[in-house]
Amino acid sequence: MSELQKTDNGEQAIALSNKPVDRHGANLDYHDAGNVVNPEHIAHHIVSPVMYLAIFGVLMIGTLATVGFAYLPLGPFNAAVAIAIACTKAVFVVLFFMHVKYSSRLVKLTVVSGFFTFLVLVIMSMSDYISRAWGQW
Amino acid sequence: MSTIVSLPDQSTATLPKRSYLNAEHGLLSWLLTGDHKRIAMLYLVSITFFFFLGGFFAGMIRLELLTPVGDLMAADTYNKMFTMHGIVMVFLFLVPSVPATLGNFLIPIMIGAKDLAFPKINLLSWYLYMIGGTFVLASLVLGGVDTGWTFTTPLSTHYLNTHVITTATAIFIAGFSSIFTGLNFIVTIHRMRAPGMTWFRLPLFVWSNYAASIMMVLGTPVLAIAITLVALERTIGIGVFDPAKGGDPLLFQHLFWFYSHPAVYIMILPGFGVISEVISTFSRKRVFGYTAVAFSSVAIALFGFFVWAHHMFIMGVSNYSALVFSLLTMLVAVPSAIKIFNWSFTLQKGSITFETPMLYAFGFIGLFTIGGLTGVFLGSLGMDIHLTETYFIVAHFHFVMVGGMLMAFLSGVHFWWPKMTGRMYPESISKLAAVTTFIGFILTFFPQFVVGYLGMPRRYHAYPAEFQVLNVLSTAGATVLGVGYLLPLLYLGWSLKYGAIAGNNPWQATGLEWQIQSPPLTENFLETPVVEWEAYDYEWLAKKQQAELSHV
Amino acid sequence: MSVSSTFSEITHPPAPEIHASHDVHDHPFYQRHHFETAEQQREAAGFGMWLFLLTEIMFFGGLFMAYLLYRNWYYDAFVAASNSISVPMGLTNTIVLITSSLTMAMGVWAAEVKNKKLLQIFLLATVVLGFAFLGIKTGEYYDKFAEHHVPGASFSIADFVNPPAGSKEKPLPMDMAKKTEVYFSLYFAMTGVHALHMIIGIAILIVLLWKSNSGVYTSGYVQPIENFGLYWHFVDIVWIFLFPFLYLINRH
């Protein structure tokens, strides 16, 4: 569809890309799975077993590290380290085992919005618990 | 701007030979269907049943409150009445009302798809709804539940011997039904749009259902876990909310309202969508500020997750946090007001006609505005402390939920009835019903603002004699309201067989659903439509009609 | 007929043709009628699964919220109670579950490269590892029952007020010791809900394993395997957080 396209007004418009557009210039291709320009699509990608094994290695190291750090007396940093390691592991699982790295922006946005809403729940609720004692001295 | 109205002559219209209604026959073909339109009809029948069940409880409540003393029923029976009223109306009527019936029927057609993305999950969602409803009926038969629809802990976990677990199971299951409906809508709207159907060509009904679906998917599971913990606390005695064991009852409130406040928007947003369609159609104008209306739905969905603690101002939340939640609550008024203003501007200089759906829509705008504004009163900290747990609250949320949502639902049912069934209802009696509903509603709930402001608390079966006049008014209004709701049931049922044939586009509306036959074919479209016009383009419609005439 | 034909003439302008390029194509056997392409179906299903996982995030999110609150309120009780559960068992279970995630991921790969035998091997391995996890979990639950650490009528705080001889734990004051019940409430709620997800997962896995016999998943129809993989990995992620949160609060 990269040739000239006639519009209703008889004007000639050059289609800038090779995707079909209507006379308002809107993309007609939203349901076309082959179209990678559309943020809701992406070409399918097969992750190789070597990659899976590498990620598995990372997760194992993370697991052992969590246990190791738990026995070190780091005070408040114990919790911070544990959460940091757990989050890193989760990110690896999400990106590679769950293929989000190779997924469309729509799926990436979906994942992010899930964690965002969870943070809203935690932060807004904790704002109540943390500030309850304020001003009561 | 607005195109002159020439409603089609329906005397020549005929029913199509083949439609989704007669594609297959027999009860099983309905119970095992994957067709979104048939599932919508299943939902319509079942939520109508639960609506009248909930209405029955409301009637009993109003009867009891006719006199100041508790003479009709005992106090705990009264508690069960308002609890069952709340649970049935919220979880089995309001939440699924517009999305599961009208949304199910229309969203695939409006975006030019053959069906929802997951037809089997759609059917599953109806079955889950019915199982949830059965559990509610079971708890009713077993003797009812009296926690209030809010399941307040530790009342629900420690002090009541009624059927809390049965009801909790019901809500858990019905919640999954709602999640699956929302999930189906989101995927369908993202992935199944016809060529050319860009986001900003979607009818606003689709936008508002999309926003509501996001809230269903993100909010409902939090209610599910909260209610699961309540059930576990009752059965095996874990101590997450139990103050005797160190738990915090307010945590339950946080989790419960994290869902149940967004749930209010889940209930009202699809109603906004209906009103946008109806207002535009009957003033023959594109909705003023389409983009603003579309984004205000999304904004409401987003803000909805930040305001829940305004239900807890008197429960001992931190003053500072309450201040923040109060301010954020005010913010919700902004997108709501955008909608009201834009509907008003849509009406301006439109060629307005007063068909039944439009009458309901006018009712909606008036009543929702009052309901919304009193919500701002309640959102402000000082007022809320005075008004919480009074009839002012009751009046406020009934103005939004009944005056708003139910009006929108009835408006939508009347608007799309010709499309769903292929037949018209009698015009004059339906207008009478719309007016009756409006008058009955005002009479029922306006006195409650006054009586609440004077200090009458909610959820008691007896009250001081000085409040009787207003309560009698309210009960009288409820009677009128009941008539207003029964009328549509009768004449819509009558129209199924005897109504005039509607034709494809009796209102001259622009949506894709009006360009196909009524009732539609099982596959909706013979071939995938390519959308080349903006939403609410009445000039395009006029040209199309012209072309069709010259073609014939 | 007249209606639809006029409609299609209006919506399909005669020239230039703006038909989407794939009006004519052959449909794979698994493509449902209301999807235009198999790819569209695949992406819709994947997106739907992710939306379902969103609800799972929020479902567990409520529990994590409760955990966060009470851990801060009753830190000493949480430490003492956490130290009463077995790290070796928790660690083993973590390794088992991560390994099962690997086998599941490999299963998805096997389905994508259309190798039926490998797919079945990996699915079976995942089932076995899932059962192993549940077995170890049952052992842990049994220990808790024996120690009267299950919340409810038989709950006893004796171990925390008077730690058994040889324990490195300091005795807790009475009111704080009582709060260990909150910890165990959350412990059983969180691991219980997690285990329930495992049980549902294993049941689905067995169905997939049985249906994979026909070769249906290794002839291009990867979607069910892929979506189940998402679910399984999600359950794994929940455990990745549960392990340090419940087992490793303050070990010494």
TrEMBL record, chain A:
Keywords: Cell membrane, Membrane, Transmembrane, Transmembrane helix. It holds the Pfam family COX4_pro. InterPro entries: Caa3_sub_IV, Cyt_c_oxidase_su4_prok. It is a multi-pass membrane protein. The chain crosses the membrane at residues 50-71, 77-97, 109-130. It is found in: Cell membrane. This is Cytochrome C oxidase subunit IV family protein. The lineage of its organism: Bacteria, Pseudomonadati, Acidobacteriota, Terriglobia, Terriglobales.
From TrEMBL, chain B:
The keyword Transcription regulation does not apply. InterPro entries: Cyt_c_oxase-like_su1_dom (IPR023616), Cyt_c_oxase-like_su1_sf (IPR036927), Cyt_C_Oxase_1 (IPR000883), Cyt_c_Oxase_su1_BS (IPR023615). PROSITE patterns: COX1 (PS50855), COX1_CUB (PS00077). It is found in: Membrane. Residues 24-532 form the Cytochrome oxidase subunit I profile domain. The chain crosses the membrane at residues 40-61, 81-106, 126-145, 165-189, 210-232, 252-275, 287-308, 320-338, 359-379, 391-417, 429-450, 470-492. It comes from the Bacteria. It holds the Pfam family COX1. It is a multi-pass membrane protein. The keyword Transmembrane helix applies. Belongs to the heme-copper respiratory oxidase family. This is Cbb3-type cytochrome c oxidase subunit I. The lineage of its organism: Bacteria, Pseudomonadati, Acidobacteriota, Terriglobia, Terriglobales.
UniProtKB/TrEMBL annotation, chain C:
The chain crosses the membrane at residues 47-70, 117-136, 184-210, 230-249. The keyword Transmembrane helix applies. It is a multi-pass membrane protein. Residues 47-251 form the Heme-copper oxidase subunit III family profile domain. Keywords: Membrane, Transmembrane, Transmembrane helix. Its main location: membrane. It comes from the Bacteria. It holds the Pfam family COX3. The keyword Cell division does not apply. It is found in: Cell membrane; Membrane. Belongs to the cytochrome c oxidase subunit 3 family. This is Cytochrome c oxidase subunit 3 family protein. The lineage of its organism: Bacteria, Pseudomonadati, Acidobacteriota, Terriglobia, Terriglobales.
